[in-house]
Amino acid sequence: MAVGVYAVKHLYPTTILYTVFLVLAALGYKEWKKAYKNLQLG
């Protein structure tokens, strides 16, 4: 949501930065979830 606000305000470098942060957070969550599942299985 905030990324859209930055884009509308023409703050393109900030938009790109927060998009990268969002992608990194999603990838980190995916890896964490996989590691947690493997830990539970033994």
Automatic annotation (TrEMBL):
Name any GO cellular component annotation.
membrane
Q: How does this protein lie in the membrane? A: Multi-pass membrane protein
Q: Which InterPro entries match?
A: NMN_transpt_PnuC
Q: Which UniProt keywords apply?
A: Membrane, Transmembrane, Transmembrane helix
Q: Which domain of life is it from?
A: Bacteria
Coiled coil ranges: none
Q: Which GO terms describe its molecular function?
A: nicotinamide riboside transmembrane transporter activity
Q: Where are the transmembrane segments?
A: 12-29
Compartment(s): Membrane
Q: Which Pfam families match?
A: NMN_transporter (PF04973)
**In terms of one coarse class, where is the protein primarily found?**
membrane
Q: What is this protein called?
A: Nicotinamide mononucleotide transporter
